[in-house]
Specification:
This protein has eight domains: 146 residues, Galactose-binding domain-like (Jelly Rolls); 99 residues, Jelly Rolls; 174 residues, Jelly Rolls (Sandwich); 29 residues, no CATH class; 162 residues, Jelly Rolls, CATH 2.60.120; 165 residues, Jelly Rolls (Sandwich); 29 residues, no CATH class; 179 residues, Jelly Rolls. By secondary structure, the chain is mainly beta. The chain has ten helices and 82 strands. Strands 2, 3, 4, 5, 6, 7, 8 and 9 form an eight-stranded antiparallel beta sheet that branches. Strands 19, 21, 26, 27, 28, 30, 31 and 33 form an eight-stranded antiparallel beta sheet that branches.
C-alpha cells in the first residue's frame, strides 16, 4: 500500500535555512584557491607597511615584502580571505615571509559564510591550535579531518618565531560547492509530496542542513500509515525526534531520541535520517544514534526534485569572554544626565557565577554590580549595602538570555528574558554620570584601577546585542580599537562549546559543565572515574572471594568497563569453589496443571540477569550447571529415540535452541541420565518416566554443557491423559571459576614477549593486571603509534604509566614503600581518558594527572601490542602477569604463551599472596588456577576457615570420639624399645574453645589418657574458670584458677590453654595467666585408675552435665565438635539432642536472617560480610563432654588385654572417654601402621 510522506518545516523558526544535497561532489577536492583571488579578497587587522599588506600573503610568492606582517605582533591580529562563494575547504598550508625570520609556529582557523559570526575550527572536538612552521621557506600543509563549507576564512596567529615577528603566506585547498537552499520566516512552510509508488529499497535516507538564530521550531514532519508520524523538533538548541500516533502536537508524542546542542548558533548543521527496516539512524553533525520505529513507518517512498530559493542572513556580532582577564569597557552615555538610562544585553554561559556589568555611582560614592550567582541573576548596589534583586534561575544552561536595566531618577527596573522571564521594580535614586564607564564581564588587570572593582568571579561566556540607551553597540568598532577598550576577547564570534554533547560520561553518568571543563556524576551508575569508565564492582564471585569476602549477594560486572551492566547475584563461597548463583522466576518444584487450551504445558523462565549478562557469565566461567528434573506418574518424557519427543526445552544464548535431552545426559542423545548409565526402569527406554508406570518416579540430573545453558523455556507434552501427573524443577543457574582471573603467563627471558593486535583505546583506555616478580625492572606493556604510544613499566620500587596522545609524553608514577619484586602478587590499574590519567598499585592511593585543557585527545596507535617486553627486545619483564584486561577484555595470555618461545602458560605460587586469607589454622593449598583453604586441621569451616562450628547441648547430650589404635594390642610388643613409652603420655596440649552458659558449676572439657593422668576444664561454683591437671599419680591434682571474671553471664567467652611440659598458659578474653608445675616432666606408664581415684568433686560436676553453647572446640589438631556436626559418618557417636546453633548470636537458623543489602546512592554495594557462612547459620545451645583416649604400645600385651574389659566398664561407669591424639606422640609412633586396626569406642 502506498502512502504520503509530508515534510513540514519551520513552524516557529524565525530565520532558518535548509538545503538538500542533490548534487554529487567530485572525488578530488584539493585545488589551490588563493593564488588567483583578486586583491579585494584579502583583509587583515593591520599591516606593517604597504608592502607587508595581506594581498602579498600567497604561498611561494615574493611580491612586496614577501608576505603579510601586521603592525603589532600579538594575538589580536588576523588575516582574512574571501573565497567569493561558499566553498568546500579541505586543507590549509602556511609559509613564513620570504627572506626573513618571520613565521608562525601555531595558529587558529575561523570560518564564516557572511564575514561575521565566525566559527573556530577544532581538531578532535577540543584542540583549536594548528601547528605552524619552523622556518620561513618550507610549506606546512594541514589536511582538515572533516571538510569545511564556508566562504570566508580567517587565520589568527597564536605563536611565532621568538626572534622575529608575525609573517605569513597562505594557501587554501578545496573545490566549488553547490546546494539548494530555502529561507523560512517563521510563518512559512514547505510541503513536499513523494511518489505514490512505494519504494522498496533496503536503505532510505533524508538529509539536510540548517542554520538558525532561534532555539525552537519544527524542522521536519513525516507521516506514515494509520496516523503514525515522525516529527523532528528543535527545542532549546537540541534536536528531538518524536513518534506520534493520531496527534499533531509533538508534546504529546513519544520522545525517541535527543541529539545535538547549541544548534541555534547561526552555523550550518548536518542532519541525516537513515531508515533500515524498523531501525532509524539519526545523525546530527558527527553524532549518530539508532532508534526503533513502528512498522507503519518502516517504508519511505523517496522522490527527488529541485527546490531553489535565495536567502539573506541577519548579522549579529557576538563577543566571547574567554578567561579571567577578559573585560569590555564602554563609555557612559551623554544622555545620562537627563535622568533616563537603559542598558541591555544578551548572554549565554555554562558557569554558575560571573560578573555581567558594573559601574560606579560617583555622586553617591556607590557601585552597581549585576552578576550571576548560583545560576541566578542578582543586582547589588553598594550604596544600599544589600542585594536588592534576585531573579530567575538556571541561567547557566548555555541558552541565550536577555537582561535589561532601566534607570530613572528614583526608580529602577530589571527584566530577564522579557515576556518569558521575570521583571522587578525598585524605588531607589541612582543618579548616573557620563564619567561612569560601563564594564562588562570583568575589570582591567591594573591594580590601581579605581573605576572598576569586581568582588565576584569574571564572566566566561558570550554576549551580543549590547545596547546603551537603546543604541546598539558596534562591536566591530570595539575590535578596531575605535570604541572603548577590551582585553582577552574574541569579537564577532561566540566560542561557547557544549562539552556534554556528545557526552564523554560513560555508563549513564550525568554530564555537567563549566566554561572550561566538564564533570561526570557517576552516582547510581556503578562506575567511577573522571568519565565513569571503570566499574566499582568485581567481575566474578572468584574475585570477591580472593579479596577475602564470604558468601552473600554481590554486584558482578562481567566485562568491567565494557557495555554490559552490573548485575546482582548470590555468591556461595565454599572451601574450594566460588559459586555464582543466578535465580529465575521459578526455581521451586512445580506441579504441572493441564491446560484447557491445548495438549502441552509450557513454562518460561525469566532470569534476574539480562541475556547479554548471562551469556558473558557462562562464557567466562570454568563450569556452569543447572538442575533439570521431571517427576512423573503415567507421564512420559522423551518417548523412544525413534519417536517424536513428548517434551523438550529451549536453552543456550537467547533466543536459544530446542534441546531433546534431559539433565545428566549428553546433548543430542535424546536420553536421560539413567539412559546414559543403563539404569532406567524399562530397558527399552532411555528415561525412567518413559516406562509409563502408574507410580511416581523421576528423571533428574544436571545440565553442564555451557553451550546449552541457560534453560529458557520448557514444553511438557504428555500431561493430558487420564491419571497423568507430573512436576518439574528447573534450578538456578550455577557457575564457578573465572577463566579470566587466573589467565596467566610466565616470562623467563628478558627478550621474550607476547604480541597481540593493536590496542584500540582512542578516548578511554583502562588497563589492569596482576604481576609478581623477583626482578627490579621491566616493561609490562607497550603499544606504539607514529608519534603516540602507551607503556606501563616497573622501575625499582615504582610503577610508571606513560603515554603520548600528541601533546608530549606524560607520566604517572606510584612509589611504594616496600619492594615490588618480592615474588608476591601485586595489582596494577591504569586509566587514561579525555580528562585525566590515573594509576593505582595495590591499595595505595591513586595517582592522577590532568589532561591539557585544550589539547589532543585521541590515542592513535598502529603497531602490535607487546606484553612482557618491547619491540626493541630491551627491558623485558621477568616474572608472571595474570588477568590482563584492556577496556574490560581479557587477553588470553595462556593460549598465546603455548606457541611463544621464552613464555610459559600459567603461573603457580598463589599461597604466598593469598595464604593469609586462611584463618584459624586453615591450610592454604595450591591449585592449578588459584588456591583453596583446607579446613581439616581447623575447628572452623567455610571458604576461609572463618565460620564457627557450634552446637547446642542439653545435659543428657554426649559425644563419643573414637580413635584407631596404632598397634594391634593382641600382638607381641615386647620387642618395642622402652623409650617409646614415655611418649604415650600427655606431654602438652593446645586447647581452644568458646562457650556461653548461665550454669555453674559446669564441666566444659575433660581429657584423660590411658595412664592415670587427666585434664579438666570447668566453671567452678564461684562462676570462674578452673583448670585441673593430674599429671603424676604420686601428686595431688593441680588446680589453676582464673579469678575475677564472671563466666556465667550468658555472654560469649573464649578460652585458650597451651601447655608444654611443666608450663601452662591460660587466656580468657585476651587476658593471659601463666603457671609453672614443679614436677618432673618424665611420666611413667600406669594403668587407668579406678573410679575411686578420680576427684569426687569432679565426678559430681560431670554428673550435672553442661547446658549452654560451645563452639570452635579444638584439641591439638583434633576438632571433635566439628566432626560430630559436619562429618557424622566419622569416628564420632552422638547421643541425645545435638542442635546446630550460633554462640555469637541468638538469631534463628535461617541463613538469610542476618543478611542485609547495603545501598549507596541507589546502587547496591557488595555485601562484603553479609553472610559469614557457606550454608545455614547456626543458633542454639550446646553442652559437651569430650573424653580423648590414647591407648597403644603398653607393656606386656597380655596384661593390657586382661585389664581392657575392666577399663571399659570403668569408662561407662564414670561417663568418661579416652582419646588419643597425635600431638603428644613422637613421630616414630605416628609413622607406624598397624596390620589390624581395631577400633576402640569411648562413650560419654
Amino acid at each position: 500500500m502506498s502512502y504520503d510522506i509530508t515534510l513540514i518545516t519551520l513552524i516557529k523558526l524565525f530565520w532558518s535555512f535548509f538545503f538538500f544535497t542533490l548534487l554529487s561532489l567530485t572525488d578530488v577536492c584539493d585545488s589551490p584557491l588563493v593564488s588567483n583571488l583578486p586583491p579585494l579578497s584579502f583583509r587583515s587587522s593591520s599591516q606593517l607597511s604597504s608592502s607587508h599588506g595581506p594581498v602579498f600573503a600567497k604561498v611561494n610568492r615574493r611580491d612586496g615584502a614577501g608576505g603579510w606582517s601586521p603592525l603589532t605582533s600579538d594575538r589580536y591580529q588576523w588575516l582574512e580571505v574571501d573565497l567569493g562563494r561558499r566553498t568546500r575547504i579541505t586543507a590549509v598550508a602556511t609559509q613564513g615571509r620570504y627572506g626573513s625570520s618571520d613565521w608562525l609556529t601555531a595558529y587558529l582557523l575561523m570560518f564564516s559564510d557572511t564575514g561575521h559570526n565566525w566559527r573556530q575550527h577544532r581538531q578532535e572536538d577540543s584542540l583549536g591550535a594548528f601547528p605552524g612552521n619552523s622556518n620561513a621557506d618550507s610549506v606546512v600543509q594541514y589536511k582538515l579531518e572533516q571538510p569545511v563549507i564556508a566562504r570566508y576564512l580567517r587565520l589568527i596567529p597564536l605563536d611565532w618565531n621568538p626572534t622575529g615577528r608575525i609573517g605569513l603566506r597562505l594557501e587554501i585547498y578545496g573545490c566549488r560547492y553547490t546546494s539548494d537552499v530555502a529561507n523560512f520566516d517563521g510563518s512559512s512552510s514547505l510541503v513536499y509530496r513523494l511518489s505514490l509508488r512505494p519504494s522498496r529499497t533496503t536503505i532510505e535516507t533524508i538529509s539536510l542542513k540548517f542554520k538558525t538564530l532561534k532555539n525552537c521550531g519544527t524542522l521536519l514532519h513525516a507521516e506514515g500509515q494509520r496516523d503514525h508520524s515522525l516529527t523532528l523538533v528543535l527545542d532549546k538548541g537540541k534536536l528531538l525526534l518524536y513518534h506520534q500516533q493520531a496527534v499533531t502536537s509533538s508534546s504529546s508524542g513519544q520522545l525517541l531520541v535527543s541529539l545535538g546542542s547549541l544548534l541555534d548558533d547561526q552555523h550550518w548543521h548536518y542532519i541525516k535520517l537513515e531508515r533500515m527496516n524498523t531501525h532509524l539512524n539519526l545523525t546530527v553533525d558527527k553524532t549518530t544514534q539508532q532508534v526503533h520505529i513502528p512498522a507503519e513507518l518502516s517504508h519511505w517512498d523517496i522522490h527527488q526534485g529541485n527546490v531553489t530559493f535565495s536567502c539573506a542572513e541577519p548579522v549579529f556580532v557576538a563577543v566571547t569572554f574567554t578567561d579571567s582577564q577578559s573585560f569590555l569597557q564602554l563609555p557612559g552615555s551623554t544622555s545620562w544626565s537627563q535622568g533616563v538610562t537603559s542598558v541591555a544585553l544578551q548572554f549565554r554561559t555554562w558557569n554558575k557565577v560571573g560578573l555581567l556589568l558594573t559601574f560606579d555611582l560617583p555622586n553617591q560614592d556607590g557601585v552597581v554590580w549585576l552578576y550571576i550567582n548560583e545560576a541566578r541573576l542578582r543586582l547589588l548596589i553598594r550604596k544600599a549595602e544589600r542585594n536588592l534583586v534576585e531573579l530567575s534561575s538556571g541561567l547557566n544552561d548555555g541558552q541565550w538570555h536577555s537582561v535589561e536595566l532601566k534607570f530613572r531618577s528614583d526608580h529602577l527596573s530589571i527584566s530577564v528574558d522579557k515576556d518569558e522571564g521575570a521583571t522587578a521594580h525598585i524605588s531607589i535614586p541612582l543618579p548616573l554620570s557620563t564619567d561612569s564607564p560601563l564594564f562588562f564581564g570583568g575589570c582591567p588587570a591594573e591594580e590601581n584601577s579605581q573605576q572598576c572593582r569586581n568582588p565576584f568571579k569574571v564572566f566566561q561566556g558570550c554576549m551580543r546585542l549590547l545596547a546603551v540607551d537603546n543604541q546598539p553597540i558596534d562591536l566591530i568598532k570595539v575590535q578596531q580599537r575605535l570604541l572603548g577598550n577590551y582585553s582577552h576577547l574574541k569579537i564577532d564570534m561566540c566560542g561557547i562549546i557544549d562539552r556534554c554533547s556528545p557526552s564523554h560520561c560513560e555508563h549513564g553518568g550525568r554530564c555537567t559543565q563549566s566554561w572550561n571543563t566538564f564533570h561526570c556524576n557517576c552516582s547510581d551508575s556503578g562506575y567511577r572515574g573522571a568519565t565513569c569508565h571503570s566499574s566499582t564492582f568485581k567481575q566474578s564471585c572468584e574475585e570477591y572471594k580472593h579479596d577475602g569476602n564470604t558468601s552473600g549477594h554481590y554486584y558482578i560486572d562481567v566485562d568491567g568497563s565494557g557495555p554490559i551492566k552490573p548485575q546482582l547475584v548470590y555468591c556461595n563461597m565454599t572451601e574450594d569453589k566460588a559459586w555464582m548463583v543466578i535465580q529465575h522466576n521459578n526455581t521451586e518444584l512445580t506441579r504441572v496443571t493441564a491446560s484447557p487450551e491445548g495438549n502441552q504445558y509450557s513454562a518460561y523462565f525469566d532470569y534476574a540477569s539480562a541475556d547479554e549478562q548471562l551469556a558473558a557469565i557462562i562464557n567466562q566461567s570454568e563450569h556452569c550447571e543447572q538442575e533439570l528434573s521431571y517427576y512423573c506418574r503415567k507421564s512420559r518424557l522423551l518417548n523412544t529415540p525413534d519417536g517424536a519427543p513428548f517434551s523438550w526445552w529451549v536453552g543456550g544464548p537467547s533466543p536459544g535452541q530446542v534441546q531433546m535431552y534431559w539433565g545428566g545426559a549428553l546433548p543430542g542423545s535424546r536420553q536421560c541420565a539413567c539412559g546414559l548409565q543403563d539404569s532406567c526402569l524399562d530397558p527399552y527406554h532411555y528415561c525412567n518416566c518413559d516406562a509409563d508406570h502408574d507410580q511416581w518416579t523421576n528423571d533428574s540430573g544436571v545440565i553442564s554443557h555451557k553451550e546449552t545453558l541457560p534453560v529458557l523455556s520448557l514444553v511438557l507434552g504428555d500431561v493430558q491423559r487420564p491419571g497423568s501427573e507430573a512436576a518439574y524443577r528447573v534450578g538456578p543457574l550455577r557457575c564457578h571459576g573465572d577463566k579470566n582471573f587466573w589467565n596467566a603467563a610466565f616470562f623467563d627471558k628478558e627478550t621474550s614477549y607476547l604480541h597481540f593486535p593493536t590496542f584500540n583505546g582512542e578516548l578511554n583506555a583502562d588497563i589492569s593486571f596482576l604481576f609478581k616478580t623477583t626482578s627490579s625492572s621491566g616493561v609490562f606493556l607497550e603499544n606504539l603509534g607514529i608519534k603516540d604510544f602507551i607503556r606501563i613499566e616497573l622501575t625499582s620500587t615504582e610503577v610508571v604509566f606513560s603515554f603520548d596522545v600528541g601533546n608530549g609524553p606524560l607520566e604517572v608514577r606510584v612509589q611504594t614503600s616496600v619492594p615490588l619484586n618480592d615474588n608476591r602478587w601485586h595489582s596494577v590499574r591504569a586509566e587514561r581518558n579525555v580528562k585525566e590519567a590515573s594509576l593505582r598499585v595495590d591499595e595505595l592511593p591513586v595517582a592522577t594527572k590532568a589532561a591539557p585543557a585544550d589539547g589532543h585527545i585521541h590515542l592513535q596507535l598502529n603497531s602490535q601490542l607487546f606484553i612482557g617486553g618491547t619491540a626493541s627486545r630491551q627491558k623485558g619483564f621477568l616474572g608472571c602477569i595474570r588477568s590482563l584486561q584492556l577496556n574490560g577484555v581479557t587477553l588470553d595470555l595462556e593460549e598465546r604463551a603455548k606457541i611463544t618461545p621464552g613464555v610459559r602458560p600459567g603461573c603457580p605460587g598463589h599461597c604466598s599472596s593469598y595464604g593469609w586469607l586462611c584463618q584459624n589454622q586453615g591450610r592454604c593449598v595450591e591449585k592449578t588456577s588459584g588456591f583453596y583453604c583446607d579446613c581439616s586441621p581447623s575447628a572452623y569451616t567455610g571458604a576461609f576457615c572463618h565460620k564457627e562450628v557450634s552446637a547446642g547441648f542439653k545435659s543428657t547430650t554426649s559425644i563419643t570420639y573414637m580413635f584407631k589404635e596404632p598397634y594391634d594390642l593382641s600382638g607381641n610388643t615386647s620387642a618395642l624399645p622402652s623409650s617409646i613409652y614415655s611418649d604415650m603420655t600427655l606431654r602438652g596440649e593446645n586447647i581452644s574453645l568458646s562457650f556461653r552458659t548461665s550454669q555453674s558449676p559446669a564441666l566444659l572439657l575433660y581429657v584423660s589418657s590411658f595412664y592415670r593422668e587427666y585434664l579438666a576444664l570447668l566453671i567452678n561454683k564461684h562462676d570462674e574458670l578452673e583448670v585441673r591437671y593430674k599429671l603424676h599419680s604420686s601428686r595431688d591434682v593441680e588446680v589453676l584458677e582464673s579469678p575475677g571474671t564472671n563466666l556465667v553471664d550468658g555472654q560469649l567467652h573464649t578460652v585458650s590453654i597451651r601447655r608444654l611440659a611443666d608450663t601452662v598458659s591460660v587466656q580468657v578474653h585476651g587476658s593471659i595467666s601463666n603457671w609453672c608445675f614443679f614436677f618432673s616432666p618424665c611420666l611413667c606408664v600406669f594403668l587407668f585408675p579406678d573410679s575411686d581415684e578420680v576427684d569426687a568433686d569432679l565426678v559430681g560436676v560431670a554428673s550435672v552435665g553442661f547446658t549452654g553453647c560451645l563452639s570452635a572446640v579444638h584439641f591439638n589438631s583434633i576438632s571433635p565438635l566439628k566432626a560430630a556436626l559436619l562429618h557424622p559418618d566419622s569416628a564420632v557417636i552422638v547421643t541425645g539432642p545435638l542442635v546446630q546453633s550460633s554462640c555469637g548470636s541468638s538469631s534463628s537458623a535461617n541463613p538469610y536472617a542476618a543478611e542485609t543489602t547495603h545501598s549507596l546512592s541507589g546502587i547496591r554495594a557488595p555485601l562484603v560480610n553479609a553472610i559469614r557462612s557457606d550454608s545455614a547459620l547456626i543458633g542454639g545451645v550446646i553442652a559437651v563432654v569430650i573424653f580423648i583416649t590414647v591407648s597403644a604400645l603398653v607393656i606386656m600385651a597380655r596384661f593390657i588385654c586382661s585389664r581392657k574389659e575392666t577399663y571399659r566398664n570403668q569408662e561407662v561407669k564414670a561417663s568418661q572417654s579416652e582419646d588419643g591424639h597425635e600431638f603428644p606422640f613422637s613421630s616414630q609412633a605416628d609413622s607406624q601402621s598397624a596390620p589390624n586396626e581395631n577400633q576402640k569406642e569411648y562413650f560419654i
